[in-house]
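User: Hi! I'm working on a homework problem where we have to compare a predicted structure to a textbook description. Could you give me the structure for the chain below?
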Amino acid sequence: MSVIGRTNAKRASGVEAPLAQLASITGSEGRPALNACSSSLKGLALPRTLNDFLDLPLEGPSVHSFGSSSFGRGGLARCALQFLAFVCVGYVLRVHLCVISKIQVYRTFLAYCFSHRLLEGIFLRKLVWILVALLPLFSQKRPELNDGEMHGDAPYLLEDGWQPLLNGTDLSGWHGDSQAKNDWLTTTGVMWDRLLGPTRLRAVPGPTAGGSMLNGPQGRTVNIVSDTKQGDVELYLEFMVAKGSNSGVYLQGLYEVQVFDSWGADKPVTSSDCGGIYHRWIHEKGVGGSAPSTNMARRPGEWQSFYILFRAPRFDASGRKTENAKFIQVIHNGITVQRNVEVDGPTRSGMNHPEAAQNPLMLQGDHGPVAYKNIYIRPLRPVIER
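Assistant: Happy to help. Predicted structure tokens:
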């Protein structure tokens, strides 16, 4: 048997289990139709596309016959069970009917039952159980991919539990880190010009509210801080820098992942390059820090991404620190550049507050033009090694 043949046989056998479970629900009325559906599925040429799936014929009365007065109770059960059978096939193939089609079938099915006074007694109980059995098939569970890797789209588009820190309209939920003028703004678009302004970024308004934040028209303003505080956290964000520009993402306002124009650097990377864990500043000199394992920087004017898994420092009941903060992983443009890096104290230019179990996020705004968008957080989960 070919590989495709074995796969189809396996998928068809996967359909029989949920149908068999419904045999006890449907009773003697529906069992002949159930057996017919199961038999027909064994020889079914499984569809490969959604259109093929939707074109599959239903033996016996069609779904459109629900309103016919000649449509008996046995025919109704048979049609309903065949519909269930084909939905099972779709589920096994990961092919899902659109929501509108599902709702329309349910409405037509129930309308027929009401018109023929079938929602009474034992049939009502059977019908309810059938519909309840169908609900898990209609659910489209989102994946859980907490393996520290990228899987195509940004993780907040693929998995549950993410919360946005930008509302797509204004800077609600953010404030400056000082009393100085705050020039951060939101915009629909961010423009970079390779020839006429490579060291600048410009806000471009649009017909809808802007989802990107830019550090003012001059590219130098106060650092911006989230109103919310985080502890152990996963952070995803996207950023853009102009040529030669510099910024930083400060977890808890204290521990910096460097944002820098490292595109085309011809020297070995250091903790000052993009994706580096910035060094501390002790006795007027840099101490510690962690260079990225590779230079993943894109050219100026292109959006880049960080996906950061961070564990906050630990403290005992007296407030004494028992464990340092740790960057479990930093993924820059889809590639891991930091893994299990401890930071024994705040890095340079962090906020003026003590280490704690929870503190806010800070984005640096005084070192050159930078834009951020799609900033999402969720509680840190254990990383599953694949």
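For your comparison, note the following. Confidence is low (pLDDT under 50) at residues 6-19, 40-73, 91-102. The first helix runs from residue 3 to 42. Good luck with the assignment!
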